[in-house]
Amino acid sequence: MDTIQELGEFALIEKIKTLFEQPADALGIGDDCAVIPIYNTNLLVTVDTLIENVHFFSDHPMEKLAKKAININISDIVACGGVSKWAFLSLSLNPSMKISQIETFIESLQKSCASRNIYLLGGNTAKDDKLSINITLIGQADKPILRSTAKPNQDVYLTGEIGCSACGFYAIKNKLSASDKCLERFLAPKARTDLIDQIKPYATAMIDISDGLLQDAEHICSSSNVGIDIFLENINICENQNLNDIDKITFGEDYELLFCADQKDRSSILAISDVKLIGRTNNSKKITIYNNGRIIIPKKYGFTHF
Amino acid sequence: MDTIQELGEFALIEKIKTLFEQPADALGIGDDCAVIPIYNTNLLVTVDTLIENVHFFSDHPMEKLAKKAININISDIVACGGVSKWAFLSLSLNPSMKISQIETFIESLQKSCASRNIYLLGGNTAKDDKLSINITLIGQADKPILRSTAKPNQDVYLTGEIGCSACGFYAIKNKLSASDKCLERFLAPKARTDLIDQIKPYATAMIDISDGLLQDAEHICSSSNVGIDIFLENINICENQNLNDIDKITFGEDYELLFCADQKDRSSILAISDVKLIGRTNNSKKITIYNNGRIIIPKKYGFTHF
């Protein structure tokens, strides 16, 4: 084993996590956000990068790219039960990029930030041969919701419909037709800020679906030391026919919320619109996927970079 | 005017600054760090990017690159009179990169962070065709020192020796010989954490020399609405003979501190080792450079990306 590709993304992150001592009074590497207690509140900090021809195609509309860039960060803050406050934008740009393009990008970013009361307070600009967008977003939460606090025998819920982003990506890549909904979900996904206030009182653990449902569910399992049974027939999966269900639920980039809650809260939670009960935690420490009573073994669980 | 190159880096930043409303209770775009008041202290936040073949050569030793990456951020926190606390690392990597290379990088970064009590709390990893390093660093300062608070008729001081980084870069680029000092200053510059406690009681305004002395001095002028007379003969300039003095002082990447202070504090400040009085603020709103009594008009002031 010699290269990063052979090592893999999560082994690299694990290497970094092992090497760097984590402070006793803050939550560092290993959740959607870092959690830093300050006086009687907590700062939440998250960083995400979008690189041209890695995360997006060169013809990704700039107005939608800006929405995506800020929403994938907002989604991390939401997944920790927080409110987004301050953003920092690092832009690497090709000097031959048209001013009108970057103007469209920053105008759209401004609208997205303003509509959520997020202030852009700084960043960095650099020359590069292509466009890269790196956003650091700082939020605040009095009581953060973590990945690591699920218990066995809790219900597992998923918001919204998943797989639409996968189908949108697949259609764009292969020049196929897809619904506006699918295209929009890949090009400009929205963080579920609309649901967080209703979910927050009940969620015992939460994560956003960025790397694929199964992989993100596994993150809850490994962090909380639980297993999860997932019932495929209960998941609201995109109806587009270009991909199969496993491909749809393992692509990621849905930015829906996966959360656990006590069974006593089930009726209250199912009264929230756009939330479905899709599984149950247990002591097994692994993910088991059922499709109408039969166990399915998927070939992959989600997206990794290397 | 059609491209980013024609627009220029500072006009792009100005465009962003104009578009995004800044909050009344925090200091956003336009200083070394953003300043966010939290209870009775202030968070300082800075972001910097290093891109392969833009900011560093492909054969930049990984151990030194890590030191540089964290120190250029620490330098921004120091320039605002703060203490660095929490770091976030975004790495974009070529999957064919050797594990041993990235191990050297993260081990060196860990040492630099540990020696300054900085905790790495998160970040991001992504695939790319080359190496990019983006660090967000959060610090704290009870009384931040800004660029915008210089007054006319104050003394202007510079720490250390400048131009060494320029000479180191020039030697590496053109395969010339240079002293170890020059090479080290380009490859692994150190933030002046050693001087900040002595300078802090006196500095009325401060900036670090990242883009070149004249350009960074201009940032103080425009932010504080003052002018500065700079006396070239008083500046401690690197003795390497490959570049002329103006090229040396306008290259940047020295990470020395340029600060203003009341004249009454002059003797106390000159008692600090490695600090020289190099100029004086005035009402002119522009930089004037004197060389032994004669005015010099430099062809350039510093580094811009586009």
TrEMBL record, chains A, B:
It comes from the Bacteria. CDD domains: ThiL. The keyword Magnesium applies. Mg(2+) 3 binds at residues 32, 76, 208. Residues 152-289 form the PurM-like C-terminal domain. Coiled coil: none annotated. Residues 30-140 form the PurM-like N-terminal domain. GO terms for biological process: thiamine biosynthetic process; thiamine diphosphate biosynthetic process. Mg(2+) 4 binds at residues 32, 46, 76. Keywords: ATP-binding, Kinase, Magnesium, Metal-binding, Nucleotide-binding, Thiamine biosynthesis, Transferase. Mg(2+) 2 binds at residues 48, 76. Its EC number is 2.7.4.16. One of its GO terms (molecular function) is ATP binding. It holds the Pfam family AIRS. Mg(2+) 1 binds at residues 48, 124. It catalyses: thiamine phosphate + ATP = thiamine diphosphate + ADP. Gene3D superfamilies: PurM-like C-terminal domain, PurM-like, N-terminal domain. ATP binds at residues 123-124, 147, 210. Mg(2+) 5 binds at residue 211. Substrate binds at residues 55, 253, 303. Pathway: Cofactor biosynthesis; thiamine diphosphate biosynthesis; thiamine diphosphate from thiamine phosphate: step 1/1. Belongs to the thiamine-monophosphate kinase family. Catalyzes the ATP-dependent phosphorylation of thiamine-monophosphate (TMP) to form thiamine-pyrophosphate (TPP), the active form of vitamin B1. Reaction mechanism of ThiL seems to utilize a direct, inline transfer of the gamma-phosphate of ATP to TMP rather than a phosphorylated enzyme intermediate. This is Thiamine-monophosphate kinase. It comes from Desulfurella amilsii.
